[in-house]
Write a structure and sequence with these properties.
- The chain is an alpha+beta fold.
- The chain contains 2 helices and 4 strands; from the N terminus they run E-E-E-E-H-H.
- The strands form 2 sheets. It has a two-stranded antiparallel ribbon with strand order 1-2. A two-stranded antiparallel sheet has the order 3-4.
- The longest helix is centred in the last third of the chain and has 5 residues.
- It starts with a strand and ends in an 8-residue tail after the last helix.
Length: 68
């Protein structure tokens, strides 16, 4: 299980490493580069699944995102 993911902002291209919650989805995250609030893409449950290098831990575990 990986608990860190590099997120790339679709607006400014800034990439930063974040620690993911182990048992929950993160729906909103502010880009440290430009300040835009990232939200999941349609069909994704969290910002890590949409913009990260690693999907969230619930998806990694194979149980679907956040128990879905």
């Amino acid at each position: 299980m990986q608990y860190h993911s590099d997120l790339t902002c679709p607006r400014c291209g800034h990439t930063a490493r974040f620690e993911m919650p182990g048992d929950a989805c993160q729906f909103f995250l502010e880009c440290p580069g430009c300040g835009v609030v990232l939200r999941p893409k349609p069909g994704d449950c969290c910002v890590f699944c949409s913009y990260g290098t690693v999907p969230c831990p619930p998806v990694q575990a194979g149980g679907g995102c956040c128990g879905a």
